[in-house]
Design goal:
Radius of gyration: 19 Å
Strand content: over 45%
Structural class: alpha+beta
Helix content: 10-25%
Number of strands: 20
Number of domains: 2
Strand order of the largest sheet: 3-5-6-7-8-9-10-11
Largest sheet: 8 strands, antiparallel, barrel
CATH topology of the largest domain: Lipocalin
Distance between the termini: 35 Å
Length: 284
């Protein structure tokens, strides 16, 4: 199973990322130990659309969140890796998302049907070779001007030798997600399900703040929802963990750095790139 190497987490082009935070309500990416501040990448505005009502052949308005479904580069199938999504969030001239392993952000200009990406920056997280190859293929593809074609909830980006096909992301049901107190029941490490220890919780408030617990440390900060992705641009964790809860604490923080949302009735599941997950139920 492809895994992240958390020890290699650094920040690349930090000044550019800070500029994106200021201009596009984006997230910084930092971490410390006892009173830690962790963040994920959310380099887009607060509004996400699916573009489902735009007719075929119209001048495309690509703002929204898209996930790469398939593609080719120089006639070869694009090297997508299961559970390591490549997303592209476009809003108000900014581009960002997750490129299999790392978060990325930048700007783009739009001329007719041609999109040109500029000022691209990314975090540096070490992942296994197939994941990194998928990421590099995507970055290389989007760093040259691409022609966009929009057809309902499908977006195609092409240039000489490159054909990328995206599908619009269905937004998460915010009304069900925000407000309740969620209690962590199960930690999903690949195909292994582990019962959560302690009293880990998560509560998202309507004002954009959140509170919760990893089971040993209290967490709080701010959150953002982009399509079906939950991001925590500001997160602090206070307290100490005993030896039996330290691994769970690290796992919860890692998943909360950026995750995909699934809601089924009173169950909330959060999945990080690579398939690690947290399963919550409404506390009651």
């Amino acid at each position: 199973m492809a895994t992240r190497n958390a020890k290699n987490r650094t920040v690349f082009a930090l000044s550019m990322l800070i500029a994106l935070v200021v201009s596009a309500c984006a997230a910084d990416n930092s971490a410390s130990s006892d009173t830690s501040t962790t963040s994920t990448t959310a380099f887009a505005g607060a509004t996400t659309t699916t573009n489902a009502d735009i007719a075929i052949g119209a001048v495309p308005d690509p703002d929204g969140e898209w996930v790469l479904e398939s593609g080719t580069i120089d006639g070869e199938t694009f090297p997508l890796v299961p559970d390591w999504r490549i997303t592209m969030v476009l809003a108000n001239g900014t581009i960002g998302g997750t490129a299999a392993c790392n978060g990325y952000g930048g700007t783009f200009t739009f001329d007719g049907a041609t999109m040109t990406v500029g000022d691209l920056a990314a975090t540096e997280i070490g992942c296994e070779q197939p994941v990194m190859e998928s990421e590099q293929a995507f970055f290389q593809a989007i760093q040259e001007p691409m022609t966009l074609e929009l057809a309902g909830d499908r977006l195609t980006a092409t240039r000489d030798g490159v054909d990328l096909r995206f599908v619009a992301v269905t937004p998460a049901p915010t009304a069900e997600l925000v407000g309740p107190s969620w209690k962590l029941q199960t930690v999903l490490d690949g195909e292994v399900a582990i019962q959560a220890l302690g009293e880990p919780t998560l509560q998202l408030n309507e004002d954009g703040t959140f509170t919760g617990s990893t089971g040993c440390r209290e967490v709080s900060g701010s959150y953002q929802i982009f399509g079906d992705e939950l991001q925590f641009p500001q997160m602090s964790a206070d307290g100490e963990c005993s030896a039996d809860l330290a691994d769970q604490d690290s796992f919860v923080i890692s998943v909360l750095e950026g995750s995909r949302i699934e809601i089924d009735g009173n169950q909330l599941s959060l999945f990080s790139s690579g398939g690690e997950g947290l399963q919550y139920t409404i506390a009651g």
